[in-house]
Amino acid sequence: MAEVQPFRGFRYDLARVGNLSDVIAPPYDVIDPALQQALYDRSPHNVVRLILNKEHSSDTEHDNRYTRAAQALRDWIRDGVVAQDSARSVYVYEQEFEVEGKRFTRKGFMARVRLERFGTGRIFPHEETLSGPKADRLKLFNATNMNLSQILGLYPDETGEVQAKLDAAIGRALPIQASDHLGVVSRLWPIADQHVISAISSILSPKPVFIADGHHRYETALRYLEEKQQEGEVVSPEAPANFVLMMLVSMSDPGLVILPTHRLVSGVGSLTAPQLRSILGEHFTLEPASSARDAWESIEADGTQELLGFGTVADGAWLTGRFRSPTLMTQLAAEHGDAWRSLAVAVLQRVVLEKLLPDAGKKAPKCQYVHLLKEVTDVVAAKQCELAVLVPPATMGHVESIAGNLEKMPPKSTYFYPKLLSGLVFHSLKSN
Description:
Layout: E1 4-5, E2 10-12, H1 14-17, H2 33-42, H3 48-51, H4 65-78, E3 82-84, E4 90-99, E5 102-114, E6 123-124, H5 131-144, E7 146-147, E8 151-155, H6 161-170, E9 176-179, E10 185-191, H7 194-204, E11 209-213, H8 215-230, E12 243-250, E13 257-259, E14 262-266, H9 273-280, E15 284-289, H10 292-302, E16 307-312, E17 317-323, H11 326-332, H12 338-341, H13 344-359, E18 366-370, H14 373-381, E19 387-390, H15 396-404, E20 415-417, E21 427-428
Parallel strand pairs: 6-11, 8-12
Antiparallel strand pairs: 1-5, 2-3, 4-5, 4-10, 5-12, 7-21, 8-11, 9-10, 13-20, 14-18, 14-19, 15-17, 16-17, 16-19
Helix pairs in contact: 4-5, 5-8, 6-7
């Protein structure tokens, strides 16, 4: 059973830091050097100093980005910039945002969730992880002993029962509010009512939780727990290290948006539409499209995982391609189930990038990943890639069926937008 509990979160004292917008940040893995500097400049207490402290050429084993993050956190707690809540709470969190001209509101709540090894309980991953980011986050966990960012977890709740109870609990209370660099408005309400917390915990206890974002941090939390158990520091099942900070959102929430992850391919040399037709024609039904937007509108209208859009930069042409060789996909991905093999990103990776292009002498395709159509057309216009591929987004049904089958989707299969802000609440791994 997924065990969801309230906790005494650490939060910024707005009387000390002023506007919450000045101290929040997106997750570390989407912060480039320019944004990192902008966040540094925004406030001496911006959470970027914790989640992604700057590296210095003079760094040593005892003075580095991790030790500086830990020292900053200790200083802020000592000075009252960050303080622990007095009551165990869950934290209702909603984000209002716009995508491609449409406005959405995603609702959920933050709590601590008991860690489970994958395959042993009711928590399921859906994407592969890399060793580098996990090693980096483990160093930060050990330095700060704090969950500084929350994992995004999804649970089935077709009737919206959990969120209805949370909405009723916050009533007309004014939220704590912040806006990020993308214009996403985030609102937070702490709830300490134990009757409400008990009710939602009871509803969630038999339900599975699917990790949508934060796989590296979840696996790092498991490793941290293992280390602390070996060191004799985890003295009871209720010790904080047994848990991880998670934002829980219903899979039926109308604001749950999964963006596509389009591929911008380089390393294949000059490629024209007639050449691409020759390469793909045996396994795809190809039709001309007047533009990237025309191709994308066809993909959206189709609503399946069978249709891809291909833009050849050398001649500025666009095609749509419907995959029609499932037997080939079965041969190339025999180790996976039908749901995995039906994914557009899986077909693109296994059939196009790993089979057909190399067989045609295009030996080293490399991908850049973007999510919005304008990002695709900007790169194509600047001729910064050789082949652009528009990919339909995976759905929550794909996430549930593939993860529930204990499989992981190909890398860059999903992009849950927007990212969750860091800096709203922290979960201590030492202090209850």
